[in-house]
Write a structure and sequence with these properties.
The complex is a heterodimer of chains A (617) and B (851).
Chain A lengths: L6 E8 L10 E7 L14 H8 L15 H8 L3 H15 L7 E5 L5 E7 L3 H20 L5 H15 L3 H11 L7 E3 L5 E4 L6 E4 L8 H7 L2 H10 L7 H5 L6 E8 L2 E8 L5 E3 L6 H14 L3 E8 L12 E7 L4 H4 L9 H9 L10 E5 L4 H14 L4 E5 L2 E4 L2 E5 L5 H9 L5 E5 L2 H6 L7 E6 L16 H13 L1 E10 L3 H6 L6 E5 L6 H8 L3 E6 L2 E6 L2 E7 L12 H16 L4 H10 L12 H11 L1
Parallel strand pairs in A: 13-17, 13-18, 14-17, 18-19, 19-20, 20-21
Antiparallel strand pairs in A: 1-2, 2-4, 3-4, 5-6, 6-7, 8-9, 8-11, 9-10, 11-12, 14-15, 15-16, 21-22, 22-23
Helix pairs in contact in A: 1-4, 3-4, 4-5, 6-12, 13-19, 13-20
Chain B lengths: L1 E8 L10 E7 L2 H4 L7 H8 L12 H15 L7 E5 L5 E7 L3 H20 L5 H15 L3 H12 L4 E3 L5 E4 L6 E4 L8 H8 L1 H10 L7 E4 L2 H11 L3 E5 L9 E4 L2 H14 L3 E5 L4 E8 L2 E9 L2 E3 L6 H9 L4 E2 L6 E2 L5 H9 L13 E3 L11 E4 L6 H14 L3 E8 L12 E7 L4 H4 L9 H9 L10 E5 L4 H13 L5 E5 L2 E4 L2 E5 L5 H9 L5 E5 L2 H7 L6 E6 L16 H8 L1 H4 L1 E10 L3 H4 L8 E6 L5 H8 L4 E5 L2 E6 L2 E6 L12 H16 L4 H10 L12 E5 L2 E6 L4 H12 L6 E5 L7 H11 L5 E6 L10 H9 L8 E6 L1 H11 L5 E5 L3 H14 L1
Parallel strand pairs in B: 15-16, 21-25, 21-26, 22-25, 26-27, 27-28, 28-29, 33-37, 34-35, 34-37, 35-36
Antiparallel strand pairs in B: 1-2, 2-4, 3-4, 5-6, 6-7, 8-11, 9-10, 9-11, 12-13, 12-19, 13-18, 14-17, 19-20, 22-23, 23-24, 29-30, 30-31, 32-33
The chains are: A alpha+beta (617), B alpha/beta (851).
């Protein structure tokens, strides 16, 4: 007897770019059993009940592209997986996470769907998904549902897990299209990493990693702050004066970043604010900046009491009432009166000046085989070029030459760890098809994306993957995330890989043992780059130019017999190295010296062996 | 014997470079001589046997002095200097005693007086109590060992420091070059990184990502969950509060269910959030990482006693605690072992209590954690640390983001990598204690203060900014302004103090007489100051000493007959010179003193200068200058219509006509000021091209130099307003006035009540030779004089005047100005010696506008 409810078979917490979208998602496999027989239009009153509980569903466009589209689908008839998607998204919306990506797709198994929901935070999305199932089932079965209690609970969960408004506005500004700085959440509170590896900066609400602990201590000691400010000739509110009778002057909050005032607001008693950024007298702005320098902060809010912020302070007895580290940004972002100021953007510009994206070279390697070898090769080239390189691949995690962790480390978590490391100057991350399907990529975008080879049938079975189109979707993920200015490295003899070439935002470098394929010829005719073999030599071709790098006989890894998979490994790795602008003499040396033994440097632990000898003696 | 007044001289002062307590003491003639006080010295020595041998001619006052010094020294303060001197007042003496901590010095003086009184009256004096009172106070107020070691390292590098609070916040260096520390925390230490270090779970998460071995484990929600976590980990575990410090609430190496439940309860009392972690075998090691270097490492052992088969644990602990190195707090190299709750539990765990008598050789632990603050010991192992362990410690510090941190590692031995012995990092500490590295219980101390300072300041950086101190009787303010102007042309943001206020980068941030040490310290604290020019008047030096330890250039414009004589027991120009030369004494060995060769008292200051000398004088044949030049040293003089800077055969020339301040050399005292400023700029290494440009562009008017020879034209007459108020200044003004054409000359003058009678009379005596009409005025402020007294003295000075034909007395400065202005006709000249500078200048300008 088949069940008549919505069952969750499996949850995939996909934390990076994936086959659905660039964003993290929660993918749930849903079995609707006999409900497959009950599209929404055959359940009397279903659509009305659902819309009564969630009136805002009327905004959903669905594939009609206009508000009301989804409600139309409900009346025309749609299935619970699809309804679940929309209801979950709407619950996320009501919990404070507007918009977002959603999908519901059939699988090859009757009644089983993949429902995919953009996940700002796994726990929140999971809670919304659970609530959505109960709500849809209540609507199907015409049972009561406590909508108010559900809202309250979801909002509470969201408030606990999602970054506060200060942090959120900085993350949004960093990850915006204009800046394209990656963000990683480091802890359950608001500690955020912007950028990768050695180029990263950290923020904690509106506090940067350069906010001095000593300065923070001074700012939190009003008496000491006042004394230091006064000694630099700054007007300071007498603490006694402040507690007497209600303050008639206005309380202004000036936001100072890296020595400049970027926003100012008049604070109202009810907690609202009026933007006054344009009105601040230049002398007052420089007073605020000096105050911040005296305390020693890089980001600070300066509170000023004055009758009129447009006039100099000394003319009106205005004074500084405090300097705050980690100032609230909301008064500037959402003033009740006046313009919103892009302070998140200003903080990001302060942390990453001159358009810096905080990125290190990241090389992603995927494909149906040979990926671990290519990862080691590319890592060796990067190391030789002088970069402290992190590698997470199928046989372990490596920091420079040290194997930190054995076993399969081609996972989201290990990749994430490499990118979190403040010493890492370049990262090489291997991504299997299973990893892309089940976990997502560890990086948002990469400098170089390599696909070694594609053998679709190898991947059939798991994750409901059962045709070449699915496999295409999996591997294109790697090509989609290549940065403009980066490169996809693709095998020219692989038709599916060739088909992916136009999807790349950066350039494409083809590799292939055969130097004269029509694909490579056409690519070169357009000025493209190709790595191949001619006359027993590894060649680098760029448009019409073609130059030999070294004879294959000088590559010990190929061991004399130029079996195709080993050769392809070398060609793919050299392509990646070339894409990374590693000098050719370094690439040549790498190819001449690489051996599988050099992957793991034996630890010449003199002391250890000495101790051992000592013990055995 | 009574103490009349006490002050602390906190910088270089009259008595030398030490910080000293200076007390004014009255002592009657009957009491003063020890030979009139039979048995006094014996009684004093009975009460304080360690007091030093008295010099011949010692008095009761010297007994007080030596007792103050001796008490501090016996309490452990590093002090050696003391003096006592008689002052002109009968039966009054000054006692000067060095201090290392002001509060301790003050208390020592108080106790010394008590001691002397006790010895006089044959009353008891409790020396032990006095010394422990001093020691306790000293421990309380002086810098702790960690901060102290960093400050000592800075001092050794000649980096100036200043405590910003009574706590451990210290400023190193000056102005824009300053850095701060607070205990073992640098100004660059990130607040976020400290928050991360406080969060043990997050720290572990980050260290794992960096491949640094850490113990397995997780946070737990309740006692049962703690037990569950312990079962998951397997083997012995540690239970600890997530945000604790100094080992509070930590239970280590526990395995049984009861222990774990109890451990959870104890940890939960300290913090809501409790962690259960794998217990790593071995010993606790602390690795100190500064920047990307491992600087020191210590193995730390929990407190323990070793049984002798005779004594109880209580007795053995007392025995260990009798070690003088063990104190009650952080100040000594070790801390006493406490027999508290944790110790009892730890003993119980071993089947013991404080009454047990452990067998001979048995090692009895008194707690499991090895913090020094709970009685543990530290052994230096810096040289033993395996490079792979050092690399992990550095990686841990970098991952957390701390530039100065203590990495706690648990392992059997630091000789082999952590990975080969299942050791791991258990904690990363911000602001780590340094005393275990400075004075380990066993092994070598490590120069960690030096390592910290060298991260903050490059090898050649002493954190100092160019500092010019200027003093003298007249011309100080103009010279200060001119030097500041020249320095400003080099692109530096100049902080300047003078008798009008404090200026930062040409903006006045304080008003009034700012020529004292407080204003100097403000300038040196200001973050926007790249160079400082500080007017340094006698008042501040007497009151508190200098506001800086050392200067690059000291300028003494002149002493002449002096000013303010009679105040503070300074009655001659020579005595005044002793005070003013303190700045010359403070010149750095690579610095320069700029001295007026024409003023013998100033020229003589060369003897106390640790650096080199540049003399200046109008006349190159001035003996001192000529000799100096002959030796190939620097001098500045006037050659015809040009100021010349000379050294050996080098000659740098600045035509007087290109120095508007001097009115083409007509105003002689401004020529002197210009020479002093040129010499100072030369001493600072400012290029002659910039010096010339600066002199040409220096404007001296009511805005830039209020009260300094401000010239107005009033209905065809010339009016000059100046703040000059001593005989030398007046002579210089007359010299300048005589070079200006005039029909009749008027002068408006008052006198300050605190000047001596003779000085007041002398001012008008001089004026009477050069002015036709004299208008005397008196204002409200008479500084202790009766109404009309000053006017009478001024009038007396005019008794034999050769030129003055008319004298008038006016009440009120503005009225006097009006009176003079109303009488002026075209071609006349009027010198107004103003008192309230800003008000008077505004008044003259207003009348000028009306005319």
């Amino acid at each position: 007897m088949k069940h008549q409810d919505i069952r969750f078979l499996n949850f995939l917490s996909i934390r990076g770019p994936n086959i659905w979208t660039y964003r993290p998602v929660l993918e749930v496999w849903v079995d609707i059993g006999e409900l497959e027989e009950c599209p929404s239009n055959v359940i009397p009153g279903f659509a009305d009940r659902l819309c009564a509980w969630l009136p805002t569903l009327s905004e959903h466009r669905c594939n009609y592209g206009e508000p009301g589209g989804f409600v139309r689908r409900l009346h025309e008839g749609t299935w619970p997986g699809h309804i679940l998607e929309h209801v979950t998204l709407e619950l996320q919306n009501l919990a404070g996470m507007p918009g977002g990506f959603g999908r519901a797709r059939e699988t090859g198994v009757r009644g089983v769907y993949k429902v995919v929901i953009q996940a700002w935070h796994e726990d929140v999305t999971r809670a919304c998904l659970d609530a959505a199932r109960d709500l849809v089932m209540a609507a199907i079965e015409d049972k009561p549902f406590d909508m108010a209690a559900t809202y309250a609970r979801l909002r509470e969960i969201a408030a606990k897990h999602l970054p506060g408004p200060n942090t959120a506005c900085i993350i949004d500004a960093a990850t915006s299209k204009e800046r394209g700085i990656p963000a990683i959440r480091l802890s359950s509170n608001s500690l955020i990493q912007l950028g990768y590896g050695s180029r990263q900066r950290r923020i904690w609400a509106a506090q940067s990693d350069r906010t001095s602990a000593i300065a923070q201590g001074i700012a939190r000691d009003p008496e000491l702050s006042a004394r230091l400010l006064e000694s630099c000739g700054l007007p300071v509110v007498d603490s006694n004066e402040e507690t007497q009778e209600p303050e008639k002057r206005g309380r202004y909050r000036l936001l100072v970043l890296g020595g400049n005032m970027v926003a100012a607001a008049l604070m109202h008693e009810d907690g609202n604010s009026t933007d006054v950024t344009q009105q601040v007298h230049p002398a007052t702005a420089s007073t605020a900046c000096l105050a911040v320098r005296v305390i020693g902060l890089d980001i600070a809010g300066v509170d000023i009491l004055a009758d009129d912020i447009a006039r100099p302070l000394d003319a009106q007895g205005g004074a500084i009432a405090g300097v705050h580290e980690a100032p609230a940004l909301v008064p500037h972002l959402h003033p009740a009166i006046g313009e919103s100021r892009p302070v998140g953007q200003a903080i990001v510009d302060h942390l990453f000046p001159n358009g810096d994206t905080g990125r290190i070279p990241v090389v992603g390697i995927t494909g149906s085989g040979g990926t671990t070898e290519v990862a080691h090769w590319v890592t060796e080239f990067l190391r030789l070029s002088g970069k402290f390189t992190g590698l997470a691949c199928g046989d372990g995690m490596y920091l420079d030459r040290r194997k930190v962790e054995p076993g399969d480390c081609g996972t989201w978590q290990r990749g994430n760890q490499i990118l979190m490391n403040r010493v890492v100057e370049a990262a090489v991350l291997e991504n299997s098809a299973e990893m892309i399907l089940g976990q997502g990529l560890a990086y948002d975008r990469c400098q170089v994306g390599v696909i070694t080879s594609i053998e679709p049938e190898k991947h059939y079975g798991a994750y409901y993957i059962d045709d070449p189109e699915h496999v295409f979707k999996v591997f294109r993920t790697q090509v989609d995330v290549v940065l403009p200015g980066g490169a996809a490295v693709l095998h020219a003899a692989d038709p599916m890989a060739v088909e992916m070439a136009p999807l790349c935002d950066g350039e494409v470098i083809f590799f292939c043992a055969d130097p004269d394929l029509p694909v490579t010829a056409a690519h070169r005719a357009n000025g493209g780059r190709v790595v191949s073999v001619r006359g027993g030599e590894l060649i680098l071709a760029s448009g019409n130019d073609e130059s030999p790098l070294l004879p294959l006989t000088e590559i010990p890894f190929l061991n004399g017999d130029h079996d195709n998979s080993r050769l392809n490994t070398v060609l793919a790795a050299v392509s990646a190295a070339w894409a990374l602008d590693i000098p050719l003499h370094v690439i040549r040396t790498g190819a001449e010296t690489y051996s599988e033994d050099s992957i793991q440097t034996p630890s010449f632990d003199v002391t250890a062996s000495f101790v051992t000898i000592n013990h055995s003696a | 014997m009574n103490i009349l007044n006490i002050r602390a001289l906190r910088g270089p002062n009259l008595w030398g470079l030490h910080t000293v307590i200076q007390a004014l003491v009255s002592c009657s003639k009957e009491e003063i001589r020890l030979d009139h006080l039979p048995g006094f010295e014996e009684r004093l020595r009975e009460r304080f046997p360690q007091i030093t041998v008295f010099p011949s001619g010692a008095t009761l006052v010297s007994a007080l002095e030596l007792a103050t010094l001796g008490l501090q020294a016996q309490a452990g303060c590093p002090v050696t200097f003391s003096r006592s001197v008689a002052v002109p007042d009968p039966d009054v003496y000054q006692v000067i005693v060095e201090y290392s901590e002001e509060a301790v010095g003050m208390l020592a003086l108080e106790l010394a007086l008590e001691l002397c009184t006790a010895a006089l009256d044959d009353l008891p004096f409790n020396l032990t109590a006095a010394l422990s009172q001093l020691r306790e106070l000293d421990e309380e107020v002086r810098l702790g060992p960690s901060t102290g070691s960093i400050v000592a390292a800075a001092v050794a590098r000649d980096i100036p420091y200043r405590r910003l609070t009574e706590g451990s916040l210290v400023q190193f260096g000056w102005g824009s070059r300053q850095r701060r520390i607070q205990a073992a925390e640098m100004g660059s230490t990130s607040a976020i990184a400290e928050s991360i270090a406080q969060d043990k779970e997050l720290t572990k998460h980050l260290l794992e990502a960096a491949g640094v071995p850490v113990p397995k484990g997780r946070p737990v929600t309740c006692a049962e969950d703690a037990w569950a976590a312990a079962c998951e980990i397997g083997g012995p575990v540690v239970i600890k509060p997530r945000d604790g410090n100094q080992g509070k609430g930590v239970a280590a190496n526990i395995e049984s269910r009861e222990e774990i439940l109890a451990g959870y309860t104890a940890a939960h009392e300290v913090s809501e959030n409790v962690m259960v972690e794998q217990y790593l075998r071995g010993q606790d090691h602390r690795l100190l990482v500064i920047g990307d270097r491992l600087v020191a490492a210590a193995r730390r052992e929990p407190p323990y006693v070793i049984g002798d088969g005779e004594h109880t644990i209580l007795e053995l602990v007392d025995e260990v605690n009798s070690d003088p190195r063990r104190g009650d707090g952080h100040a000594t190299s070790l801390t006493k072992i406490r027999l508290d709750e944790i110790a009892h539990v730890t003993l119980a765990h071993q089947g013991l209590d404080t009454g047990s008598v452990p067998r001979k050789g048995a090692r009895v632990l008194l707690r499991n954690n090895a913090n020094l603050s709970t009685g543990g010991t530290a052994t230096d192992v810096t040289d033993d640390v395996h490079p792979e362990i050092a690399a992990r410690a550095i990686a841990a510090a970098q991952m957390v983001g701390l530039d100065l941190c203590g990495v706690d590692i648990m392992c059997e031995s630091v000789l082999v990598p952590l990975e080969s012995q299942s050791g791991g990092v258990i904690e990363v500490n911000a602001a780590p204690g340094l005393r275990m590295h400075l004075q380990p219980s066993f092994g070598k101390g490590r120069p960690v203060g030096e390592a910290i300072i060298s991260t903050m300041f490059d090898e050649r950086d002493d954190g100092r900014i160019p500092l010019v101190a200027v003093t003298g009787t007249n011309g100080k303010t103009t010279t200060v302004r001119l030097i500041a102007h020249l320095l400003g042309l080099t692109g530096k943001r100049v902080g300047m103090t003078n008798s009008d206020g404090v200026y930062i980068n040409n903006q006045r941030i304080d008003t009034g007489d700012c020529s004292g040490p407080r204003s100097a310290r403000s300038v040196l604290f200001h973050p926007d100051v790249d160079a400082a020019v500080l007017e340094t008047a006698r008042g501040g030096i007497l009151r508190e000493g200098l506001g800086f330890d050392r200067c690059n250039v000291a300028v003494v414009t002149n002493i002449g007959m002096g000013d303010h004589l009679g105040l503070n027991y300074i009655s001659t120009a020579e005595e005044l010179a002793v005070i003013k030369r303190v700045i010359v004494h403070s010149v750095s060995p690579h610095g320069v003193a700029v001295l007026n060769a024409a003023d013998p008292i100033v020229a003589a200051m060369a003897d106390v200068c640790p650096g080199s000398i540049t003399f200046f004088a109008h006349d190159r044949h001035e003996r001192v200058l000529a000799n100096h030049l002959a030796q190939g040293k620097r001098g500045v003089f006037v050659d015809g219509d040009t100021i010349v800077g000379a050294k050996g055969k080098l000659r740098y020339r600045v035509p007087l006509k290109d120095i508007p301040l001097t009115r083409s050399g007509m105003i002689k005292f401004q020529v002197e000021n210009a020479m002093a400023a040129i010499a100072a700029a030369w001493g600072l290494g400012i290029s002659w091209e910039k010096i010339r440009r600066g002199l040409a562009t220096f404007v001296s008017d009511t805005t830039t130099a209020p009260g300094r020879f401000n010239i107005f034209s009033h209905r065809g007459a010339t009016v000059i307003a100046d703040y000059g108020h001593n005989p030398d200044a007046i002579r210089a003004l007359i010299q300048a006035v005589e070079s200006m054409p005039s029909q009749r000359r008027f002068v408006v003058i008052s006198g300050a009540g605190d000047r001596r009678d003779c000085d007041l009379r002398l001012q008008t005596e001089i004026l009477g030779e050069a002015f036709d009409e004299v208008i005397l005025y008196q204002d409200d402020c008479q500084r202790g004089r009766a109404d009309g007294e000053v006017l009478a003295l001024l009038r007396e000075g005019l008794a034999n005047a050769r030129r003055t034909t008319q004298i008038e007395e006016i009440r009120g400065e503005m009225l006097a100005i009006d009176t003079a202005l109303s009488r002026l006709q075209a071609g006349d000249l009027c010198l107004i010696l103003i008192d309230r500078i800003d008000e008077a200048l505004a008044h003259i300008a207003m009348r000028n506008g009306e005319a």
